[in-house]
Amino acid sequence: MGVPVVGTIGRKLFGSRNDRLVKRYMKLVDQVSALESETVVLTDQELRAKTEEFRERIASGKESETDLIPEAFAVARETMDRAVGIRNIFDPIHEFDPSLLDDDARKLFEETKATMDATEAHPPTGEFLGSNEPVPAWKFVDIPHELYAAVRKIYPKSKPPFRARPFDVQLIGAVVLYEGRIAEMKTGEGKTIVAPLACYLAALVGKQVHVVTVNDYLVQRDRDWTFPFFRMLGLTVGAIHPQHMQPPQLKQVAYQCNVLYGTTAEFGFDYLRDNMKMSTAEQVQKHRQIAIVDEVDSTLIDEARTPLIISGQAHNEQPRYDLADRLARHLMAKQKPWDDADQAVQTCLVTISGLEGDIRNAMDKSAVPAMKQKMDAAKKMLPELETTRDAYTQFFELELDKKRATLTHEGIAEAQTEAGIGSFYVGQNMDVPHLLEQSIRAHAVYKRDADYIVAADEKGEQTIVIIDQNTGRKMVGRQWSDGLHQAIEAKESVPIKQETQTMATITIQNFFKLYEKLAGMTGTADTEATEFYEIYSLDVIVIPTNVPITRIDHNDLVFTSEKDKVTAAVNEIHAMHDVGRPTLVGTTSVEKSKELSDALTNRFKVDHEVLNAEQHERESEIVKFAGNLGAVTVATNMAGRGTDIKLSPLTPDKLIEYWKRRDLCPRDVTADLGEEEVVKRIWRHVAPKDLGLKKSDVDAMDDAAIFKQLLGQWWSTFCWWVDGDKASSTSEKKMMEDLDRSGACMLHRLRFYENIEDMGGLHVVATERHEARRIDNQLRGRSGRQGDNGSTRFFLSLEDDLMKMFAGPRTLQLLSKMGMKEGVAIEHNMLTKAITKAQRKVEERNFLVRKNILEYDEVMDHQRHVFYDLRQRVLEGIEIRELIFEYIEQAVEDSVFNYLDPSYSANCIEEWLRENISVTIDADRMIGKDREDLHKLIIRDALGESAEVIRVTIGEYLPDTIDLGDGKISERDETTWDYKAAVDWAVAAWDSDLTITEATEMDREEIVARIEESAAAKIQSTDLSPLDTYLVAQHGQQELAKWIIAKFEISFDSSDLTDLEPEEAVDLVMERALDAYRTREQIYPVDFMIDMTSMRLQQDPAKAIEAFCQWVKLKYELDWTPQTLPSNNPDDLKKFLLEEASRWDEDRTERRAQRIVDESGGDIDAWLRTNWNFALTDDEKEQAETDPLFVATKKIKQMQRAELAQLERNVLLQIFDGAWKDHLHQMDQVRESIGFRSFSQLDPRIEFKREGARNFDEMFGNIQDRVTDLVFKAKMQVRMPQQQQQPKQESAKPTSQQPRSKPKVAEQSVRAASAAASKDDPTSGGAMTVGRNEPCPCGSGKKYKKCCGKR
């Protein structure tokens, strides 16, 4: 851990572990600083050359990158200052004034600028890789070395935009990141500079770094900002964006860079997409080596549980969303009377509760009797209101905190009646209750402009866009799952998207665990240090600030009610706004931001910005200018992370103009009057309103009297802890000091301010505490950056959600005794600390909750690793043959033990009975029975079970009286009976002749009896002779033989299995199967190439035969040429090649491998690339150094079965992806329903793991079956490229009357190609390469002179 638990005395004597680590880092920084004088004199080219020098020193093994930290960081510090700081003097945006330079430097500046103006922007290639657009010349044209010193002379302090020399604390942060830890650096400490420094060290050892930022704007901004730094050091830096913003080709290019910027979502989605690609060439991410996460607490804590999901179509048919929406509207209209009555009940309860609080806290005791009278009247009215409510029907229940809606029994009945489609629990209607509950959620729980907005997509079509409740940002492209998104689309009458299901998914936490090294930085991590360490094994190092913090954090103000709190907060915002001090207002949700915005507008007409979903695109702009004069920005506590708030400069004229607009200053005032006179006139101007006096009375008063009365009024208003009646007896000095302490009033110190910082800096108002202290700290950190002035205050009420958690009944009682009254605030340092302690407890509880939830994802995480590793192995073609052998062996073993099991025939009989007469009889009871006894057993048991099945099933269609528990009974309601469904089932299952008309005239018992008669008749009349098949001797062996023939397409006789034990049978079947597989390895490549050549012959016969001859030489070392083919008949060629393939035994393969080793001179990889266009993998290269013969032999075998391997790879990938998609869908269903296991006293977590493991095993069982089904039968279909296909009118028309047309065409093409090749080759004499006495290449077994040579 970053800060272990040690004694107070020990910490004072030796410092904490964090202190000791910081001291160690400072020693490194001192070494860096000592090298600065040597580094500053290096030219840009010499700095760039240092990168290669460092790499060579590391590669030599004499030094590590850690040893080079002082030198490397000295180079990086100087490069950062030049490339990111001083180079900005040529950036037109910053409008550098060259007149500040001396004459020589100004001349150099003008010359360099002229060169830049004459140089065209460079395309994003080579060292400019990663840019989205051409790079302007000012970013890359060389700058004279003398200019660097000249600019440093003008700007001796490192401050943007013209200086960017990393501070010592930033160097410490870079070391912390490179070591794989979390650097806690306060907001405003320049974290954007820190990450590139750590990236430089990683690049020296060839590691790619992914720098993770919080949004796409910061991705591109930070990439472009650091590009000159990386380029000067000889490195490349790229950025990735969502698919609609960046084409795949550009993303491929970006991933080739040394450093890559992107968001969490995009890195995660690229990982998932890579695991869905069909070739390694399409994959972009390849490796996950080092990740540096900005705002790491937000990503790895807040978003840890967030799943990244790639979805696909979930249904072949569109579910009935419109029907569900219509029924939801109907039920909501029907329930409105109940809702209105319930609202009256709830209002009465709130009134009683409020009066109880008012009585307890009333300052005016004379008003208590009247309040008690009102409370008694409300208590008396409550039972009447409850009775009125209970007279109406509740059709659904809402749990707003859980965003859940549940249909009641009455709701189901009403919806069934309204829908008119029969029972919701039968057949195709079974999805309606789920869709209906989602529609009710859409109407009653999810609110437009709070949970989502309706906006146009890139095609201009209206769509639903989800709003992040923490940040207010729009989450474009995200969808609610399980049909909720479609329900909201139906509600808003926008086009309904296809319901999706998960195709690939991973939680953010588990994605980042995939990296070899993980690091992060934030301003607020220490409060979550335990969680970082326990989940990610990350230490948190708290790094001191470069400049001491001067921000004033006022104690919390706690009020009794929400209304009082909001009033006080709005008053303080208004007071700051009038003077012009910028204020950032933080809330805990988008909805509360809107409420506060309305209060500011309605009460004081305060101009302000609200950072919500509608303004998402302007987020960086809004936050950037939140430090301007009079700016008020309302946002959630998380908004604007990663964007600096700039404090604007001021002038007297600008101030006076603003004060006039706020009616703080008289219209005739100008700056020429001087500061003192202007302030006096302002006090005189506001006095009538603030003091409640007539203007004439104020005019009669002198300036001192006005100020004294105003001071007393402000003291009484803003200093809530004082007795306002004592203003007249309190000295002006004391009142001034108290107002300074309050931080809520500025009028008493009004003057001409030089800038916003001089005014006091940014003021932060928070309207509620967050569950996590770091979120509060993050909001505070928006103010007082880099030693700037600033202040913060939290306004709380006992009605806040968190305060309800913090303060129980006893706390409320104590606060009441302390004198906490309505409208009065309590402020004390002890109270603020107590709330902080309570937050810590909530954080601990939330950590346990997160750990509990993440246990569920452990199942999928394990399965994901196993599956994706296996899929990648197949994608890369690694040991596919061995994998298939594993599947074949497992399939054979499973089938042999299944078919040869003594109970196999009885199991078949059990299944036949289930399918044909809808009853189940235990197989064990049928083992050993002869034909007559078996039939008697079946008839007897079937009659008994059918009666039970009928009674249970008919209850679904014609429900009887239901005991709901707790003494509640649901009476039989025949109006809900689904006669049609009941009759349809009886006819389908039991061949009943019951009709709907008859059923409606019968009672329930009569219907059951009628169906039982039909069932008995069907059972007794059923022909059981088909069961004779299962009673014959050796039935299992015969079925196993059929399975073997169908699976492996080989001949097999059941008698071969006689007297064999299952283990022996497995060995026999495996031997036959592997023989068949080896034969296929020889046949398939030849078949494929013959077909391919026949297809190519139709386009370019000469090239087709040339390619065929090259293939033959590569495969079998046959020196065929187009002129010397042994035959023009494809069938003859096929026979010859198959004969040749059979001759390639282990000895011949090893001899060829030895020749390769000898010819390669030890570099097998280079030989294969040159001669075969093959390449060795990294593992094979390493193995070739010790056993080159083995590697060469392996590559020969791979080459000879390459076509089959490609087919098998494609087959496996298609099967894998389909099975994985189905498995993810199953796991989604399990996750939705696993909670119900708790009703059976089972732990849902354990049950989820058990169910997940079972489904995973089942998935691999299905994969095994499908692979072994196809591996002996699949064939790659040879097709011409679309642009090369012959015109339709020129194509041959094979018909049944011309069965030999295809071979003839192929043979003619071969002859024509051979002739063409001979004509093109003047040296060719057309001589055969086969000797007269050699075996004929057609495979007949005769000598050539007696066979094809004779012709």
What key attributes describe this structure?
about 1350 residues; alpha/beta; seven-stranded parallel β-sheet; 50 helices
What is the topology?
Layout: H1 8-14, H2 17-34, H3 36-39, H4 44-59, H5 69-85, H6 103-118, H7 145-154, H8 168-178, E1 182-184, H9 191-204, E2 209-213, H10 216-232, E3 237-239, H11 248-254, E4 259-263, H12 264-274, E5 290-294, H13 296-302, E6 307-313, H14 321-361, H15 368-390, E7 396-399, E8 404-407, H16 409-419, H17 432-444, E9 452-456, E10 462-467, E11 474-475, H18 484-492, E12 500-507, H19 508-512, E13 517-522, H20 529-536, E14 540-542, E15 552-553, E16 557-559, H21 562-579, E17 583-587, H22 590-604, E18 609-610, H23 619-624, E19 632-636, H24 652-661, H25 675-691, H26 695-699, H27 703-718, H28 732-742, H29 756-759, E20 762-766, H30 773-780, E21 790-797, H31 801-806, H32 809-817, H33 829-875, H34 880-899, H35 904-917, H36 931-957, E22 962-965, E23 968-970, H37 979-990, H38 996-1000, H39 1004-1021, H40 1035-1048, H41 1062-1097, H42 1101-1116, H43 1130-1142, H44 1146-1160, H45 1164-1171, H46 1178-1184, H47 1188-1200, H48 1202-1233, H49 1244-1270, H50 1301-1320
Parallel strand pairs: 1-13, 1-14, 2-4, 2-5, 3-4, 5-13, 15-21, 16-21, 17-19, 17-20, 18-19, 20-21
Antiparallel strand pairs: 6-12, 7-8, 9-10, 10-11, 22-23
